[in-house]
Design a protein that fits this description.
- The chain is mainly β and about 375 residues long.
- It has two helices and 16 strands.
- The strands form three sheets. Strands 2, 5, 6, 7, 8, 9, 12, 13 and 14 form a nine-stranded antiparallel sheet that branches. A five-stranded antiparallel sheet has the order 1-3-4-11-10, with no helix packed on it. Strands 15-16 form a two-stranded antiparallel sheet.
- The relative contact order is 0.15.
């Protein structure tokens, strides 16, 4: 074999190798992907995108759940009824019949400033009942819609030492539902004894105080040492358009209590309202009052305070009058309006008599016997 013959296999091998490099290689498994933007070893590729195209990512927040242990009963016991003055019959005349005694914090003002009547905040009665755990307060209104568009707040004021200064308030705002709830309830206390201003028997206006200043319970602001402390519901019965339930621990066992409806100021830090405004600035809903009509204080209705757990002397400030009493056999009634100083009708040597002008319920006036 000559040298040319020996070179043929070598040249052929080189040619085949070169050809193999120019044709695709077919394998039983697909080839690995080739990175196009960043090495595979990089966990997060660095990509620059216009800020306007990026969504704002807000991490989810967890709201602490409220675990309730105790609920008020569905059908609480009934209690004695306390009556309030109503303005239903005189509303067409744009006036309250009576019952607005500004000096002793008795407000009958279920009217807008133009004297438009709001029956959903006109209190007819309230009552107190209790069981082993709860005190129940039922409020009857002339109207039937506590979820009125005005946004009516309802409250219960507790005076534990019967001195005319409210110590604690249970305060509720809409919306109201027929089941017990406390999502819309606050409980506040007065820590510096100023809810009645300087004196419980008179208006001390104009005075700047902070009323009920400290929250004991407010789920909205996560104040819930006791998540079952107080509750509210609506439409609980004929005499319970609004019904509260709160634990007995809020009272001292013997106390005075009154209720209010408020779609005006709605600010418990300003209670008592009569200590905020001079009578001439507040106005009056009573036609023959020299300050008629309403001025700066309107859309609020409150009641006298009833004594519970003790027998009152009759000298307690803001005390409710007796529910019924025949004219006293005594003389010398110097001035029935003396009752407006917050003492008692009997002390003024006067008498309680039934008001014949009120046909919706029994009401009494302090008059000459």
């Amino acid at each position: 074999m000559n040298n040319k013959t020996k070179l043929i296999p070598i040249i052929s091998s080189i040619a085949l190798f070169a050809l193999a490099c120019t044709i695709p290689f077919f394998a039983s498994s697909p080839p690995e992907a080739v990175p196009t933007s960043a090495p595979i070893s990089s966990p997060i590729p660095t990509v620059f995108i216009a800020e306007s195209n990026l969504p704002t990512l807000i991490p989810p927040t967890s709201t602490p759940s409220v675990v309730h242990i105790l609920y008020p009963v569905t059908s609480p016991p009934s209690g004695g009824i306390v009556y309030d003055v109503v303005s239903q019959d005189t509303a067409p005349e744009k006036r309250a019949p009576y019952g607005d005694s500004y000096n002793i914090n008795r407000l009958e003002r279920p009217f807008q400033q133009d004297m438009t009547y709001v029956p959903d905040m006109d209190i007819v009665t309230f009552s107190l009942s209790e069981d082993e755990t709860w005190i129940y307060i039922s409020i009857e209104l002339v109207g039937t819609n506590p979820n009125n568009d005005l946004g009516i707040h309802y409250g219960v004021e507790i005076d534990n030492d019967a001195d005319g200064f409210g110590d604690t308030i249970v305060w509720a705002k809409p919306p109201y539902i027929s089941d017990w709830t406390n999502d819309n309830v606050m409980v506040l206390k007065d820590t510096n004894h100023d809810t009645a201003g300087l004196s419980p028997g008179f208006s001390d206006a104009p005075l700047d105080t902070n009323g009920y200043d400290t929250a004991l319970f407010d789920l909205e602001n996560n104040i819930k040492d006791d998540p079952d402390l107080a509750w509210v519901r609506s439409d609980a019965g004929l005499k319970a358009t609004i019904q509260f339930a709160f634990k007995k621990s809020l009272t001292d066992g013997s106390f005075m209590l009154g209720v209010l409806a408020d779609s005006g100021l709605r600010n418990v830090e300003k209670l008592d309202y009569v200590d905020r405004f001079l009578a001439e600035d507040a106005g009056s809903p009573v036609r023959d009052n020299k300050y008629y009509p309403l001025g700066e204080l309107y859309l609020v209705d409150n009641t006298c305070r009833e004594a519970f757990g003790f027998k009152p002397t009759g000298y307690e400030p803001q005390l409710c009058p007796p529910p019924e009493k025949t004219p006293a056999e005594q003389t010398g009634c110097t001035n029935p309006s003396q009752y407006t100083n917050g003492v008692s009708c009997t002390q003024a040597s006067c008498a309680w008599v039934q008001d014949p002008n009120v046909i919706t319920h029994v009401a009494y006036h302090c008059v000459s016997p």
